[in-house]
Write a structure and sequence with these properties.
Elements: H1 2-14, H2 24-38, H3 45-70, H4 74-88, E1 95-96, E2 100-101, H5 109-120, H6 127-133, H7 138-150, H8 164-173, H9 183-187, H10 205-218, H11 229-238, H12 241-252
Antiparallel strand pairs: 1-2
Helix pairs in contact: 2-3, 5-6, 5-7, 8-12, 10-11, 10-12
The structure holds heme C (2 copies).
């Protein structure tokens, strides 16, 4: 168990989240150089002036965004957090409505930040969260992740308790005959998670069922940007529906 645990950590160490992805700032810089290169030598003065002004405007926009990056004021973080709680619950405990909205409380900051970037970069498919993630600056993402990490409401519950024993067995021992490693090997005993590996303790039953059922359709969707989601793919694909429900029920009651 500890071998897989440390191997996966080593793997994550070798591939830090966001590695190989271009920052907004990078894109801006590259566009600016391209604009400069495209400017022909024989260009009329007026056109050249317009281009220069456009390039300067881009440079200023970049500087403004950088200032905003470094500074997410306490008031703006609180306002954004209460917006998140409108959907994710007053203590970010999650909400099992028409579609399940996951628990964010107590989540690993690295995982949370990586997923928000994943929605933004369309590595992870979800229209609601992609629209929200691309309004958040990197500084705001870090501030929100830190705040959410501090919350610890009790699990919302509601999963069928009769599945608990089977769920615990899968969580602790995996499914050897289907080559599925123990969930505890990566998510940790009692599922606190670590860094880019999420906490599963207290996560909503219908949400975990949905993620494990739809893994290949929702996660790792940007071929140009492979990410940590591939670690879970074989596991999600190898579990049967009853096994998914059992393990989802088990983790939903962990604190
Ligand atoms: C309009 C409702 C709504 C709002 C507002 C909202 N979310 Fe979400 N969020 C969702 C839904 C729905 C999902 C589940 C997406 C899925 O099924 O993949 C989700 C998923 C997430 C996830 C993935 C969690 C996981 O366990 O992988 C993160 C992280 C997240 N939201 C963060 C935030 C933050 C931070 C805010 C506030 C800035 C926020 N959300 C605001 C609806 C919302
Ligand atoms: C080899 C390590 C490893 C093992 C074993 C493993 N996981 Fe994961 N799991 C991960 C990683 C890494 C992620 C984050 C994937 C991403 O970034 O999209 C993850 C994500 C998840 C998620 C998504 C959570 C969310 O909030 O969206 C669920 C659910 C999950 N795992 C359940 C399980 C279950 C159940 C098992 C056991 C049957 C298991 N995992 C075994 C590494 C592992």
């Amino acid at each position: 168990m500890s071998v897989i645990w440390s191997n996966s950590l080593r793997h994550l160490n070798g591939r830090r989240a966001g590695e190989g992805t271009t920052s907004l700032r990078g894109i801006r810089c590259r566009n600016m150089t391209m604009a400069r290169q495209r400017e022909p030598r024989t260009m009329p003065v007026g056109v050249r002036w317009v281009l220069r002004t456009a390039i300067l405007a881009l440079a200023f926009a970049g500087a403004a965004a950088r200032a905003e990056d470094k500074f997410a004021s306490r008031g703006s973080v609180q306002a954004k957090l209460s917006f998140c709680k409108d959907c994710h619950g007053t203590s970010a405990q999650g909400y099992a409505g028409f579609f399940p909205i996951p628990r964010l409380a107590g989540q690993q900051t690295e995982y949370l930040e990586n997923q928000l970037r994943a929605f933004n970069e369309h590595r992870r498919a979800n229209n609601i969260m992609s629209g929200i993630a691309n309004t958040l600056s990197p500084a705001m993402i870090s501030a929100l992740a830190a705040k959410l990490r501090e919350l610890n409401p009790p699990p919302v519950g509601g999963a069928p308790r009769r599945l608990m024993a089977e769920g615990k067995r899968i969580f602790d021992d995996g499914v050897p005959e289907a080559n599925v490693a123990a969930c505890a090997a990566c998510h940790g005993p009692d599922a606190p998670g670590v860094r880019e590996i999420p906490r599963l303790a207290g996560q909503l039953f219908p949400y975990v069922v949905k993620e494990l059922t739809n893994w290949g359709k929702e996660r790792g969707q940007n071929v140009a940007k492979p990410d940590t989601s591939f670690i879970m793919s074989p596991i999600a694909h190898s579990l049967t529906k009853p096994q998914i429900e059992a393990v989802a029920a088990y983790v939903s009651y962990l604190k």
